[in-house]
Write a structure and sequence with these properties.
alpha/beta, Aminopeptidase, Alpha-Beta Plaits, four-stranded antiparallel β-sheet, 16 strands, 26% strand
Length: 387
């Protein structure tokens, strides 16, 4: 089944929705405007039920098919939040909210799922129930986890769940997916080295936490090079270094490091956490200081389920003519929480030759709207066929 004609007809409307979302980005759970528009449109489409405030600002729409005898319930999820980035695209619909930008394409995901919801509510050409899920706070807030904790899966009887993300560098409208671990666990690292500050001309009277931090930043990379099995992916990144002093001639009392740890298995996650604690404690002991390490297990590994991945790839090929194998991604994705609750799959759709996500010049490619909408609609129709 190729791209649905209805989405060619709706393309300009969906593009307008997307560009409105783009001009008014909202962060984390503060997606009140976006969620309000989503709920208003779902009601206008004739959804059988629209629930607001799930997972604080999430929205859920329920669409029952022309038949419901199969008892099947399939969830389709899009994310709504933006990023704390100053936009540099120069677009006529660029962000009107300083320091906030839809730099990951969640404006496009939301608009495409709205388009699919309109079509599904119009046609209802499936035997079962489709639940469309609009989630806040994917960008670090764990909105997927919060919606699940709020009873998303049980309340709506969801049996399977599917998600999609645009992917710059992949041909526009082309799909890619992989079974098993797909996106990495993304854990947060907070380390404080404490010593004894003093005058820069008298380092012998101090216990220098800057030296401790410098040694630790280098030593932490040995987790990847010397502790982890080379065939297992691990990324340890220190992304911020701050000291308690801003002066040129003062050795500070404390140095604060922040970073992330990315892994694709619980075994590597456990190894990384243990080694970080050991390395930082050892470095502090060596120089006579103290290390305080906080390792926060944030997003888990996102694992696609085999049967649902095969089905999602089949649907993608029916829409676009092909579906290739996606690479492993060391970024995090909180759809992982939903895939821990229910079987399902997550797919990439090409955004074309655009700036990368999380870049101030990124923009979602409106040309891929018909493919994305068609995939979501076909997931419902093919998973819950009439007759």
């Amino acid at each position: 089944m190729p791209i649905k004609n209805r989405f060619a007809e709706l393309h300009s409307d969906i593009t307008a929705w997307r560009r409105d979302f783009h001009a008014h980005p909202e962060l984390m759970f503060d997606t009140h405007r976006t969620a309000g528009i989503v709920a208003e449109k779902l009601r206008a489409f004739g959804c059988d039920e629209v629930v607001e405030g799930l997972g604080r600002t999430g929205v859920v729409g329920v669409i029952r098919g022309r038949a419901t005898g199969s008892g099947k319930v399939v969830g389709l999820r899009a994310d709504m939040d933006a990023l704390p980035i100053e936009e540099a695209t120069g677009l006529d619909y660029a962000s009107e909210n300083p320091g906030k930008m839809h730099a990951c394409g969640h404006d496009g995901h939301t608009a495409m799922l709205l388009g699919a919801a309109q079509y599904l509510a119009e046609t209802r050409n499936f035997d079962g129930t489709c639940v469309v899920i609009f989630q806040p706070a994917e960008e670090g807030g764990g909105g997927g986890r919060v919606m699940c904790e709020d009873g998303l899966m049980d309340r709506f009887g969801i049996q399977e769940v599917y998600g999609m993300h645009n992917w710059p560098g992949q041909p526009a409208g082309a799909f890619a997916i992989r079974p098993g671990p797909f996106f990495a666990a993304a854990d947060l690292l907070d380390i404080r080295f404490t010593g004894r500050g003093g005058h820069a001309a008298k380092p012998h009277d101090t216990v220098d936490p800057v030296v401790m931090a410098a040694k630790a930043v280098s030593a932490l990379q040995t987790i990847v090079s010397r502790n982890a099995d080379p065939t297992h992916q691990v990324v340890v990144s220190i992304t911020s270094v701050e000291t308690s002093s801003k002066a040129f001639n003062v050795i500070p009392q404390e140095v604060h490091l922040k970073g992330t740890v990315r892994t694709l298995s619980e075994e590597m996650r456990d190894l990384a956490e243990a080694r970080i604690h050991a390395i930082c404690s050892g470095v502090a002991d060596m120089f006579g200081g103290e290390a305080h390490v906080r390792y926060d297990r944030n997003y888990p590994v996102m694992v696609n389920h085999d049967a649902q991945t095969e089905f999602a790839a089949h649907v993608a090929a029916s829409v676009a003519g092909d579906c290739t194998e996606a690479p492993l991604v060391m970024g995090g994705e909180d759809f992982a929480f939903m895939l821990e609750e229910r079987p399902g799959a997550y797919i990439l759709v090409g955004n074309g030759d655009t700036a990368a996500v999380h870049h101030p010049e990124y923009n979602f490619n409106d040309d891929i709207i018909p493919e994305g909408c068609s995939w979501w609609a076909e997931i419902a129709e093919q998973r819950m066929p009439i007759g």
